[in-house]
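Form 12-C: Joint structure prediction
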Amino acid sequence: MQTNDNNSVLSMLISIIVSFVIALTFFYGLDHLVMSMQGLPLNPDLSPAG
Amino acid sequence: MNDKRPSNQPERPSTQIRWGRLLWFALSMLLLVSGLAQAAEQDTTLDRITPIGMVQATGEPLTTKTTPDIADVDTAEPIAAPRPSRSDYPDIGVSSRAIVWILAQLHLFFAALVLAVPLFVLTIELLGVYTGDDRYDNMAYEFMKISLTGFSITAIFGGSLALALFLLYPDFMGYMMHVFGAQVLVYAILFFLESFFLYTYYYGWNAFRYGNLKWVHLSLGLMLNAAGLTIMVVANSWATFMMAPSGVNEVGAVVGNIWEIMKGPLWNPINLHRFIANIAFGGAVVGAYAAFKFLSTTDPDKRAHYDWMGYTSNFIAILAFLPLPFAGYWLMAEIYAYSQQMGITAMGGILAWLFIVQAVLIGTILLAGNFYLWAGMSRTDGSDRYKGLIKYIAVTLVVCFLIWVTPHTLILSASEISLLGGSHHHILGPLGIMPAKNVAVNLMLVVTFLSFQLYRRSDKVATVSWAPMGNALMVAIYVVAIVNIIFLGVYYGYFTNTVYKVGSSVAQVASTLVVIIAGIVIDTLMFRNAKTLPSHWGRIPDRAQYALFALPIAFTWLMGLMGYVRSSVKTHWHVYTVMKDNSPDNFIPTIAYAGNMITIVTVLFLLCVLFMFWVANLSSTRQAKPAAGGAV
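Section 2 - Result
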């Protein structure tokens, strides 16, 4: 019983971490894409490259 | 559309031959292709933003020919715009501008309503066909019944406006007729077409109810909308020609064909903005009807029906409202691109204060729309899972609302400036500029969508195995999007140059849209075959209905306000840079005067809407036959 609960919590934790990694990567890429489409390139740290 | 509706209805007969569907499909494709062809024919960005006529500070034309003569007709030499003097404007004892203002705005209000209602009526009818639920069909029919009187009122105000314009601004109208020529007759033909499709669509509703005939009916609705939208875009070309003329030279002489005159730089931004705004406006007005009917009956079945109708109306209004600020941004960006002077007049001069009033009204709309959703969650037993989040949404809405209404430049006396230590407050000052407002607007839209999402989830329990992962992903998208919107606004808005500041607002919009699209996609997939919890239509506090009354009032005032701003940016020109306004009213009035005018028009419109509701109610009322020998 205890093992099942631990697995469930671990599974939830992994889901949350994976979700945040996906979301962060997506929005990071989105910022680069949208700004560069307007002729406003960004550095990897998101500061203006222009 | 929410599926928490009253119980089901009998199925309809099926048909073997699907010619009705083919007709619908062919017409849809035809309209889609013609719409795409129009959009594809746009010029390059450079062509669109290059002003057709240079701003003439002195108003002096480059050529002297201003009046036509017989020789002009023979040689077809371009004729410059007229230059009327003060005495060329008839004086009827009251302000010509006030008369035209009232008539034009009332015409536009009703035009917006009667263009929007058939759009969502057709969608609801189509939904009824696909779900096989007659109640969608009945509700769509009731929406049409409400708006039917509106078509006549639109025509009455339109005709009155035309007469007033020809009487009070003869030179200007003569010039507009000269520029647009036979296009105005096309406009008249479109009215005939719209009337034909309107009456066959409305009166044929029950005659064309099932099978192939239903598809014929849907095709009539499609053509009604096509005619209505074409009328809108044609009329928009007149307004945008006055703001940013194209197809004419610097003195207003026609040098292009009618298509070049119509497709000015602001035409499509206005088309999109009005299209979306009309739907939101139409949804809000019919929502008030549903609220009125809900409050005026004690019959549980009727309350359930009008509760559902009110919910649907609010759904339409708020859903259409969510992308509206983005269409507004596009319009303002094109205005700035066309003429920086015009843009600054709108957002940096006297009219800038009206954008603060706009923020108050939009905040009212969002608060009312959200409140209605929160109150509506009491319909379902499963909503308790989400009610705890409402307070956080409310706090976010209020904080963002306060940021949005914070003005940048205050009107202060010398002593007040001294007390403040400058013309800008050290904390409120930074909140008065666009980066802070962009953050506020986007966050308000994100949390409004969250309210929608919670409402839609409240009567469902996901049964798919990946539901925890789906929920985690949705939470992550919300959190990261909100952080991203704040980061973009604060970092690029306050710590980089202006170009990046402006560019980052597009990325903010993209973040908001990602939340909305991701929310719809994830919920659609995650709640497929979900367990449905009981919901009870009609179980909603009466006070929620007052939110449905607040929506159309705020929408109407807002449309009046922003319509005034759009028109006023021309300042002292009838047609910007090519035909000067020399009438006694060729100035931007005080904010108080404009506010009073907008209020008067709003009250008049609401009175007309009450009349419209009364007439709609009257048609379903039958007087009881007097008893024999009784008093008549």
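Section 3 - Comments
Chain A has one helix and no strands. The mean pLDDT of chain A is 90.
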